[in-house]
Amino acid sequence: MAIKILMPALSPTMEEGNLAKWLVKEGDNVSAGDVIAEIETDKATMEVESIDDGVVGKILVAEGTEAVKVNELIAVLLEDGEDASAVDAMMSSDAQPAQPQIEAKGEDTPASVQVSSNTQEPQQKDRIFSSPLARRIAKQNELDIAQVSGSGPRGRVVKRDVEAVLAAGATKLATAPAPTPVVAVAPAAPQGQSDEQIFKLFDEGSYELIPHDGMRKTIAKRLTESKQTVPHFYLTVECQLDELLALRSQLNKSAPVDKEGNAKYKLSVNDMIIKAHALALKAVPAANASWSDNGMLMHKHSDVGVAVSVDGGLITPIIRRAEEKTLSTISLEMKDLAKRARERKLKPLEYQGGTSAVSNLGMFGIKEFSAVINPPHATILAVGAGIKQPIVKKDEISVGTVMSVTLSTDHRAVDGVLGAQLLQAFKRFIEHPMSMLV
């Protein structure tokens, strides 16, 4: 029977997306896994694959359509031997009162089919829709399938969803009662001025109103929630950069070259800051934590997010297990992530999660600033510019390059002394950079 192609949930928090482009047209033959469309979210442009073999029978949502709800029917795929009448039959059946549905069509390629109306609804209500392979992988890793958000049709949990959770460092939830999911709910904000009141403050024609896009709305929502629900406090330390700058220059000069004579990598100060922060989190593991109402999440690895400016906002791709990676690996990985972030080509797994973050405005000459924590992180490092200034060494005044770093901390997870210990460890790695190579 005809197969429904639904608007996929490309991340656990996605509620709607823009159907940017169809890569097929009605009448085209497609195979399972073929890319058939591009979907724009607030953070990235993602590809949609066909869930089965067949012929594109009807496209129901035109390309360029914005704010398409997750699980909305966007196209119909016909199986062998079916014609347009199968589409009409499906559309007419959808117009009837809704009947209970089950998932069919085999492993990770589901399709919605109707069952008789005498199916007992209470049995279906609590069912977690998931594929056999997804359930098997979850069971092998002692992961509660109910804790995984599905990206398949009608929210079905498929193999890639389980693998994404495991790759993000999910703990073995099946050994204990599943905790209630924690949802940060911002308290009601005081009623401010309405748009109409704001517009009246300015002369007509003296401004241009540019509507917010999805990314800007998401940034505004998350940062407002962070400042209203996370008790921030701030610690600042100054680090001398002269030894780090000298080592960076030496490493770049000794970098291997390719056949054209180009260096295979070029380390930046930011690459070394990422490594230093990752090693500091490893050295002070109690600070590598996330708060939840059910308990403290103590992370086993330093997954460091790095703020990257993109058109219309910013995104934070993640260097995972940064404490284990060489500086050259971090440098190459960061360049790739930043490039694809600006092209909005990152996968959700590449920018969701993480255990801490770095925001560096030093290249813009900013001496010092405080960054807003990005939950579920408990810390974020705000890095200022390296500035030449007088310093005192052994009671003598000399000139050195000094960088100011401010740690924003969630006081629920990281107390003052613990935050200070984390900054001490970071300063030690920055000022003795050879220790990062051991």
Task: Summarize the SSE layout with pairings.
Blueprint: E1 3-6, E2 16-22, E3 29-30, E4 35-40, E5 45-49, E6 54-59, E7 65-69, E8 73-78, H1 84-95, E9 101-104, E10 111-114, H2 121-125, H3 132-140, H4 159-167, H5 195-199, H6 214-229, E11 232-240, H7 242-253, H8 269-283, E12 289-292, E13 295-298, E14 304-306, E15 308-310, E16 313-315, E17 318-319, H9 327-342, E18 356-360, E19 379-393, E20 396-410, H10 416-431
Parallel strand pairs: 14-18, 18-19
Antiparallel strand pairs: 1-8, 2-4, 2-7, 3-6, 4-5, 6-8, 9-10, 11-20, 12-13, 14-17, 15-16, 19-20
Helix pairs in contact: 3-4, 8-9, 8-10
What are the main properties of this structure?
438 residues, alpha+beta, six-stranded mixed sheet, four-stranded antiparallel sheet
